[in-house]
Prior knowledge:
alpha+beta; three-stranded antiparallel sheet; 14 helices; elongated
Amino acid sequence: MLLSDSFAALPHVVREGRRAVANMERVAKLFVSKSVYAFLLVVAVGVAGLIFPFVPRHLTLVGTLTIGLPATLLALGGTAPRAEPGFVRRVARFAAPTGLVVAAATFAAYALARTEPWVSEGQARTTATMALMAAGLALLVLVAAPLNRARLALVVGMGAGYVAVLAVPFARRFFALEPPPAIVVLAAVGSAALALSLLRLLGTAGPALRRLPGQPAARGEPPDVRAFAEAGESAAVEFKASLRWDVQEQRVNKALERVVAKTVAGFLNGRGGTLLLGVDDAGGIPGLAADYATLTRPDRDGFERHLMQSLTAALGTAARRFVAATFADVAGADVCVLSIGPADAPVYLREAGDARLYLRTGNATTPLPLDEAVRYVRSRWPVRTAGRLADAVLGRQA
């Protein structure tokens, strides 16, 4: 900026700063999760009176393939979401449950192997290493989500690296791996499969479970768009194929932006919900490419900026505190996921100089008549003062 005497470089600087912060959070989740499961394993084997399930070479191998190399490569890419406060809290809420799942799966595989008298200590340790490797790869999938081709190739490559070590005699001896009997391998696979299921649950329902009551979703959580699309619309989930591009008329239709604002207002005035932009009513995923093409800046940042400006113009600045946008790449199609929390005050949609209160009822968003709106505001926000209520009825925004 100083060399060119122009502020044109600032957007790029801000974008790179956001990317650096997002990558630090992603990498921190990997390393803190490792610290959690390592600590829990030490406690578990100490209580059970067992020998520690790994030698340093095992931890070097698994750590390199599930933490070290992936963290280095993930830090080189990634999106640039808007930075949000609460870095330590988000990392801790992610690492604690995932570290517990990984530690439990590893200890279960090791303990099962130790119960068989014909299994040597080296084979039991290899069984624990297999389980830890599988759970570590599942953890990597969670952190790297949403998966694109490059990230999927990274996960597959790390798994293939471990298989190669097991297959090559010299590497197997160097890392002190002794393949256990097939029945013990099945036990390791079973515990790893259970860990995969639990980690998948944490990846889909986890962001909601880790959120405090009434707190809007944090940015950067990996949304499972396909799971939403398969489940369909509900009282808490709504799909919109686009923000402003009218597919039938093949033109920009700003009325569609008003429809999106109505849906957001309905969620804000109720219990909150999730709005997916780029997913049609049937659960198809056309993506946001058509919307991007209508913007001055045809990318995620440009889309998010235009979306938030549109919501601010329609709903007021206070409502933005309860709306968080994340993006997911689904087979090359971008989808914007709006996580909307319940507002702490009534939110009104401005329409031709008037203001109306919208509420989510079933799968639809409907305006309340004036008398019903007054009663709803009194019951939903009983601590609001009479003056604030009068402002609401008259359509004045704070």
